[in-house]
Design goal:
Blueprint: H1 2-17, H2 21-43
Helix pairs in contact: 1-2
Length: 51
């Protein structure tokens, strides 16, 4: 999940660099929404170690 978020943010930076700001803003917004989802449902869940 972290790799996908990093890839989306990198894509947003590349799109912005090439002058496609509207697409960059859209990709950035999607990455922010996914980041909040990941933080809320995965990063805050208790760790379970099955031995």
């Amino acid at each position: 999940m972290i790799a996908m978020l990093f890839a989306l943010l990198s894509l947003a930076m590349l799109l912005s660099y090439f002058g496609m700001q509207k697409f960059a803003y859209a990709v950035f917004a999607v990455s922010i929404v996914l980041s909040v989802y990941w933080l809320k449902f995965h990063a805050t869940s208790p760790l379970t170690i099955q031995l």
